[in-house]
Amino acid sequence: MKRQVRTRFAPSPTGYMHIGNLRTALYEYLVAKSMGGKFILRIEDTDQERLVEGATDVIYNTLKLCGMHHDEGPDIGGPYAPYVQSERKDTYKPFAEELVEKGHAYYCFCTKERLDQLRTECEAKNETFMYDRHCLSLSKAEIEEKLKSGVPYVIRQKMPREGVTSFEDAVYGTITIQNNMLEDQILLKSDGLPTYNFANVIDDHLMDITHVVRGSEYLSSTPKYNLLYQAFGWDIPVYIHLPLIIKPDGSKISKRKGDAGFEDLLKMGYLPEAIINYIALLGWSPDSNQEMFTLEELEKAFDITSISKSPAAFDIDKLKWFNAQYIRNMGPEEFHDLALPYLSEAVTNRNIDLKKVSKILQARTEVLTEIPSKVGFLNELCHYDLSIYVHKKMKTTLEIALSSLKAALSVLEETSEWTEEILHDKLINLAAKLEIKNGQMLWPVRTALSGWAVTPGGAIELADILGKDESVRRIKIGIERLEESL
RNA sequence: GGCCCCAUGGUCAAGAGGUUAAGACACGGCCCUUUCACGGCUGUAACAGGGGUUCGAAUCCCCUUGGGGUCACCA
Question: In the structure, how far is the CA atom of residue A480 from the C1' atom of nucleotide B27, in angstroms?
Fold first, then answer.
C-alpha cells in the first residue's frame, strides 16, 4: 500500500515572501493536491539571530490570500504538532547523540576563532576551506572531560572520505557527488539548536514527508541529507528540486537588493490570482496551450514530469498581462470593489458616480495602482494647450472644434434627461445633421470635457459621468478659449 | 577556484530521431472605433559553437563557450 503523499512548506520567518519561495510553496501544494495528498506548513526558526517580529503572520497571510490552504500547521495544529522548530527544540539533540553513538557524528569543541583563522589561512592559499576534523581525534576521556566542564560544543556529521553518493531527483535525474567534497557539517549548534540541514531531515522524517520540494540551490547538499537518512536507517523521500527564478538580467532575486516580494507586488496593484497563475508557469508547463489557470485547475493539471530544469526569468510584463486578464474577466462589481480604494482617494469631486468610472476603467486597467493617474481630470478642468483640439485622424481643426462645441452646447443645454443613451443619440444625430464625421463632433467635446489628450472613455461617457452642469461649464470654457485664439 | 546543474526567438515555453520548429508576453502593421484601451487579423524574431552516432538530429554522446547554484554554529 502506497503511503499518502505529504509535502511541506518550510519557510523561515524573515518577514519577506520571496517570489521563489512562494513558487516553491505553490509547487509543494500542487504536488500534494495533484496526488490527493496533504500540504503541511512548518516554520523553520532555528536561527535565533534572524527572528523577525510578526513574520509568521506574513506567511499565513500569503498562503491564505493565494488560496493555498495547509492541512497541518502551527496555527491549525495537526497530528505531528508542534510545527514550529523552536518548539521542537528538545527533539533534535537525542538524534544527534544517537548518531554520535553510531559513529556517524562527533563532538567538536573548536572555537569560532580557530575556525575563522583556518578559513582565512585557506583563503590566503586560495584553497577551499573544509573543517580539518581536529576534534575527531579526541579521546573518549578528553571528550568526557570537556563535556563535564561545560566547554561549548557542536556536533558534526562524519562524512565518508571516499566513494561517491548518488541520489535520484524527480526533475534532474541522477546526481552524483564525490564524498570528499562533503564537509563534516554541523548538526547541532552550540546553542543547542539544530542547523537547518539537520532539523530538516529529522522533521521531514518525523512528519512523514514523502516528497521534498525545494529550490535547486539544495541540489549539491542533498547527498549530506541522504547520508543522514542512511545513518538513521530511514526511508529517503522523493526529491523534487525546482529551477530557480531569476531576474531578467540573470541575477538572483534578493530582499536586500529591494526586489519585490509577494507583498510588494500586492502593493503595486497585482492580484494574488494573477501572481499565482504566472509563477505556476515559471518552471512548469501544461500539456495544452492553456495559460489561464485557477488554483483548482492547476491542482488537476499539475504534473511533476513537466517541471523544467532551466532557470526562469521573472518577467513583470507578462505578470502585468496576466493581471490585466484577471481584471477584464471579473464581473463589474468585483472590479469596482477592487478599484474603489484607489478611486475614492483619487477622485475628490463628490458629484462623480464612481461606479460609472469603474466601468470605463475596467478594460483600461492592467494594474490597480495606475488608476489614479487616469482620472485626475474628473476633479477639475486644468488649463490645457489648445493644440490638442487638432487631431489629424479625427479630421479636426481649431475651427471645426469651435463650431462643433457650439452646436453641441446648444443641444446639450436643452437636454433634460442626462443618460448615456440619450447623449449618444443627440450627439450622433447632431453630427449627421451637420454632415460631419462623428469624430469631428466627439473629439472636440471629449477634449473640452477633459482637457486631456487621452482619457479613459469618450465624449459621451465623460459627459454622462461629469453631469450636465459640469459638462456645459467645461464646454463653455472650451468655446471661450477657442474664440479668443481664433 | 573545486564540485553540481542548465542551454529552443528579448522573455516564458512546446518539442522526448523524420514538424513548414507550436503557443503566450513584449515589439511592428492592419481592422474595429468618438481619443486611449478592449477585441480581431497579421508580421519580425530561436535550436550557443564544434565534433561525432545515424539514411536522417533541436532531440543521443563528447568537447568548447556561456549562464546559474553551492562550498556558514543561514535557511
Answer: 43
Q: How many helices (H) and strands (E) does chain A have?
A: 19, 11
Nearest Cα neighbor of A462 from A486, A441, A445 is A445
Give φ, ψ of A352 to 5 degrees. Answer: -85, 135
Cβ pair A348, A435 in contact under 8 A: no
**What positions of strand B are covered by protein, i.e. any atom < 7 Å from a CB?**
1-8, 10-14, 22-26, 33-39, 67-75
Contact in structure between A244 and A307 (CB atoms under 8 Å): no
Is the CB of A37 within 7 Å of strand B?
A: no
pLDDT tens figures, A367-406: 999 999 999 999 999 999 999 999 999 999 999 999 999 9
Task: For A352-369, write each residue's pLDDT tens digit.
Answer: 999 999 999 999 999 999
Distance of CA A362 to the CA centre of its chain: 23
Minimum CA–C1' distance nucleotide for A152: B73
- Stated in angstroms, how far is A274 CA from B42 C1'? 28
Say which residues have a Cβ less than 8 Å from residue A361's Cβ, sequence separation at least 6. Answer: A335, A339, A371, A374, A375, A456
Q: From the CA of A305, how many Å to the C1' of B53?
A: 28
Distances (CA, A) of A454 to A86, A391, A400, A435, A462: 57, 12, 19, 25, 12
Tell me the per-residue pLDDT of A118-137, one tens digit each, with 9 for 90 and over: 998 888 888 888 999 999 99
State the Cα–Cα distance between residues A205 and A170, nearest whole angstrom: 19
Quick one: CA dihedral A88, A235, A103, A162, positive or negative? negative
Of A255, A437, A468, A476, the active-site residue reads A255
Other residues' Cβ atoms within 10 Å of the Cβ of residue A399: 12
Q: How far apart are CA A23 and CA A25, in angstroms?
A: 5
Residues of A (156-215) placing their beta carbon closer than 7 angstroms to any atom of strand B are 172-173, 175-178, 181, 183, 185-186, 189-191, 193, 195-197
Q: Is A468 a catalytic residue?
A: no
Distance from C-alpha of A128 to C-alpha of A118, rounded to nearest angstrom: 11
Q: Count Cβ atoms within 10 A of the Cβ of residue A94 and give its class: 0-12 exposed, 13-18 middle, 19 or more buried.
A: exposed
pLDDT in tens, A58-105: 999 999 999 999 999 999 999 999 999 999 999 999 999 999 999 999
Q: Do the strands A38-41 and A6-9 form a parallel or antiparallel pair, or are they unpaired?
A: parallel
Q: What is the ipTM of this complex?
A: 0.96
Which residues have CB under 8 Å from A197's CB, separation 6+? Answer: A185, A187, A221, A224, A225, A228
